[in-house]
Amino acid sequence: MLKITADEVKIPVDVLPEAREVYVDNYLAATQGTGRLMLFACDQKVEHLNDDFFGEGIHPDDNDPEHLFKIGDQGTIGVLAGQRGLVAQYAADYPEINYLIKMNSKTNLIDTDQDDPYSPQLYSLDAVLALREAGVNIVGLGYTIYLGSEYESTMLSEAGELIAEAHANGLIVVLWIYPRGKAVKDEKDADLIAGAAGVALCLGADFVKVNPPKASDGASSAELLARAAAAAGRTGLVCAGGSTVDAKQFLTQLYEQIHVGGACGNATGRNIHQRSLDEAVRLTKAISAITLADYDVDEALDVFEGKEDFKL
Questions:
Q1: Is this prediction's pTM over 0.90?
Q2: Is 209 noted as a catalytic residue in this protein?
């Protein structure tokens, strides 16, 4: 089992002295004391409307938004990421979950051909801190930046300010950074994704979520991901999970992202919540077995298939 101590957490100097202990507690909570992030992404109800929650191949359990919280409660995750309102509606019934509040979101109705993407901040940090004061277990914030969009300067500015304010209050920050817009020719280009990882570092993020690069020139996606992990420096890099795929395929990709690509965890949404509650819970445990305990793929598959239980 991977474990780090409080003394091993590298605290950014923009964390105010009076918030350092809170920051360390939040970092250890989000990473389950390992330094690796297992982020359960639950922000798609805005991003993709209902497409990710109802339809062919999606289990009926996913029709109910509470399904997300049942998974987070019964499964093994580091943090559940969702919009403030979503968390506010359910958190009282699920007080043990670590929450990360997604600060900005947009729908997918406006295509890039119509306008470059811009995801506005939806609420103030004070509104999130009020939730924390009310007893919600908020350990961090999330924010999406679309590099290459004509609106990137606004998103970069919002994110930079947000990270400074979050750190001052002891919260960790995860940036979602996706190159996207009319100026971007290839969103999955390895060097472009490495560039995005470097931007997250320069903004001061604790973790950055990127899309895995496409394989090219005889190199696998995981091998090319190593460029981004290096560019991220002390900002931990995690990959988006993408559309639902076979469990073995997904777990193999995850293992390679960590052990070949240098990823510092994972950020998975649809691959988890589009399944039945039982299957989704088992998959969170299998993902966490790889992410937080260095299980190999076969061992993690045993967890997913119910042949072995996994507990931190």
A1: yes
A2: yes
